[in-house]
Hints:
- Helix content is about 40%, strand content about 10%.
- The chain is α/β, with parallel strands linked by helices.
- It has two domains: about 25-230, Alpha-Beta Horseshoe (Leucine-rich repeat, LRR (right-handed beta-alpha superhelix)); about 310-370, no CATH class.
- The strands form three sheets. The chain has an eight-stranded parallel β-sheet, with no helix packed on it. Strands 4-6 form a two-stranded parallel ribbon.
- The longest helix has about 70 residues, at about 235-305.
- The protein is elongated and about 135 Å long.
- It comes from Capra hircus (Goat).
Amino acid sequence: xxxxxxxxxxxxxxxxxxxxxxxxxxxxxxxxxxxxxxxxxxxxxxxxxxxxxxxxxxxxxxxxxxxxxxxxxxxxxxxxxxxxxxxxxxxxxxxxxxxxxxxxxxxxxxxxxxxxxxxxxxxxxxxxxxxxxxxxxxxxxxxxxxxxxxxxxxxxxxxxxxxxxxxxxxxxxxxxxxxxxxxxxxxxxxxxxxxxxxxxxxxxxxxxxxxxxxxxxxxxxxxxxxxxxxxxxxxxxxxxxxxxxxxxxxxxxxxxxxxxxxxxxxxxxxxxxxxxxxxxxxxxxxxxxxxxxxxxxxxxxxxxxxxxxxxxxxxxxxxxxxxxxxxxxxxxxxxxxxxxxxxxxxxxxxxxxxxxxxxxxxxxxxxxxx
Length: 370
């Protein structure tokens, strides 16, 4: 009797195991549609599909695609690697409550709306690598209560606020242009104090500023100024009086500094004004001197000349006409030729005299005399 009961028990257990295996084999339905050049998610797939691979297509995850996805509510794994998605809309995966793995790497995603992951309560692994994500709202990850792995490598993220992912174990952040300023201090503290493992830590390097490029984001040293911007929790009884004292001392020093700066600014302004006036006056004097110099030079040159007296003029004319070629010494010349030569010489003396242009010679009077 005992042997019969034992055999019945073994038979029941074996049947249960076989039924579980058959159920698992029935529930796991794979569908591989990679590299089919699909621009939309096909709607003719079996509704019992659990693993759907649509990688290497032209899918954009538009509104039509999200509506089709709602019908595949048994999905546990979805692969959309290297497609054409640019935006993850709100409620894109809201009906996929059984989804555990979502891989959307190597797309062109630059915007993730805050409710994009709504409904993914069982999601354990999220891959958003090699996209064009610049900024992420930490509230976007709030629906992911059971997320274990988050892959964000190869994006354009320079700042990342701490997400509230209590079950997260692994995070991948390398290949981003991290700005290791004070704003990244919270992320560093979270990586150090939480149980999250930063994968590829040695190559998760700072890109800015230049002096911190040799550090990774987990070990970069921060100055005391950064810690003052993000103070640790202090009791109010100690913090408030210290803050009031520091504020009062700061205000006093600020008042003294402003007073001194006002006095110094007034003195410097007067000195600057005087210097500007002196510079302008000296420059104007130099310009006027440069302009007047030619006039004064001509005046001095003309001042050295004097008006010829009458006897000096007659003497000069007599001496000029008494040269060897005078009419008295020329043989065989008549009086008319002598008169013509005399007039030509006389006219030459009048108009070629160097003193004609002198301002002290009255040319009108000289013409009358002639």
